[in-house]
Amino acid sequence: MSMNVTLAREDVVRLCERIEGAQRRAYAIPKLTDEYPAMTIGDGYAVQTELRRRFIAQGHRLAGWKAGLTSKAKMVQMGVNVPSIGFLTDRMARPESSAISTADLVHPRVECEVAFVTKKALAGPGCTRQDVLAATDYVLPAIEIIDSRFAGFKFDLPSVIADNASSARYVGGGRARYAEEIDLRTLGVVMEKNGEIVGMGASAAVLGHPADAVAMLVNILGELGETLPAGSFVMSGGITEAVAVRPGDNVVARFQDLGSVSVRFVE
Amino acid sequence: MNEEKIQHYGDELFEAWRARRVLRPLLEREPDITIPDAYRIQQRFVARRLQAGETIIGKKIGATSKPVQDFLGVYQPDFGMLTSGMAFQEGDTIDLGTLIQPKAEAELAFVLKDDLKGPGITAMDVIRATDYVLPCFEIVDSRIADWQIKIQDTVADNASCGVYVLGKTKGDPRRLDITLAGMVLEKNGELFSTGVGAAVQGSPANAVAWLANTLGELGIPFKAGEVILSGSQSSLVPVADGDELVCTVGGLGQCRVRFSGRSAA
Known about the structure:
The structure holds two protein chains of two kinds.
Chain A: H1 9-25, H2 41-57, E1 62-68, H3 72-78, E2 84-89, E3 99-101, E4 109-118, H4 129-134, E5 136-146, H5 157-162, E6 167-172, E7 188-193, E8 196-202, H6 210-223, E9 233-235, E10 243-244, E11 250-255, E12 259-266
Parallel strand pairs in A: 1-9, 3-12
Antiparallel strand pairs in A: 1-2, 4-5, 4-9, 4-10, 5-6, 7-8, 7-11, 11-12
Helix pairs in contact in A: 1-2
Chain B: H1 3-19, H2 26-29, H3 35-51, E1 56-62, H4 66-72, E2 78-83, E3 87-89, E4 93-95, E5 103-112, H5 123-129, E6 130-140, H6 151-156, E7 161-166, E8 182-187, E9 190-196, H7 204-218, E10 227-232, E11 237-238, E12 244-249, E13 253-260
Parallel strand pairs in B: 1-10, 3-7, 4-13
Antiparallel strand pairs in B: 1-2, 5-6, 5-10, 5-11, 6-7, 8-9, 8-12, 12-13
Pfam families (chain A): FAA_hydrolase (PF01557)
Protein name (chain A): 2-oxo-3-hexenedioate decarboxylase
Keywords (chain A): Lyase
């Protein structure tokens, strides 16, 4: 993947302010490539990095990272052959079994994921599944609430990367496990909304193995000149399709061997 | 539907199966076939196979997932009979020349240690009566042209049963979470699709309970030792000469099968 940046610094700052405003005030904007059709993936990460710098300067803590567009279906849908990554801060975290407000979100959707918490630093290039497993403190089930700031959830890869890979909220919970005590490739997952099954799959849907998705994420971080410190929380990508939620909805993600995570949504 | 017509269509399906050729949808020719009529046609079709030397090994449950039920416009499963000529083991190669228009599905198979006599059977009774579960493939096939089936067509056609392949790893449903066990299906070494036990009626045990109750009402025995294919947990996989499929059930094990030759249609 080329991380070539073509945008001028002032354009990166301008686009970052546009994304930050849309995230803060929860409104939809046109995708960035409408105005900058030649925007590259590298440009998208430059905007995302600027956004991360600003959040940290405002006192947010960097909690970890997420892998996005990791399933074959989603990559085909987006016409891309590389996944994307986004950063996670403490401000995006919500507790298990809590009520999540949708008032500060544009058009939220939920996904079920296997999450990793690391105990050793990881760096790319060349990070492998084995490296990830050796650096993993524990795995746990998670619900990710994604929220594209682009109108109609329509975007391309440079735009969605600039928008921090649609990151919005995340909920870790269920049962923490040692990675070596379970088969991370074949974990079954059922997502229920208001008691009805709305998503099903097994963890291999994420790039063949969730730890491969984390290795991929570390290698992208390497290209951005970053590493993954010990203690990071990493979401490996949606196993189920993303499902839209509204106030009043109750979502439960049930995982083989990892227990369940639930959240509900309010105004 | 009168007995003469039931026999006629059952015989037609048997001959089509034997000669590997397809029929026009039955419902196009007989718009008034009911689902009970269709099961009587199935009984005739299967009786002809038994007369030709096969024995009953078990049952298959079909139309267990929401997408398939939406497609067929029915909101309950269906069932067919597994006969001795359909049985394959993990590692076998299936000759596609024996089939018409096959597709594969990954499933969980149950083997009972006690008879299940419905009505009144619950999922809890199913777990109690289960000797073990196995990962398996069902290779569905249709004697109806281009799979243009309605529920009556597939029921009459023995629930579109082709052949089936049982894995060798036995699991105890008291140790394995059959509802949340993941299903990973690979074709020629590449991920094809994933699923989970809950895709089958919320849990495969619910599908087996439905079967026990339905058979009970019809007075059809459901005996210890029978093999029950509980319903597809994957999307349908087209298969061709040289293909290899592997399904892995999380916490249980895998079933592997190869295909050779060419199917009739």
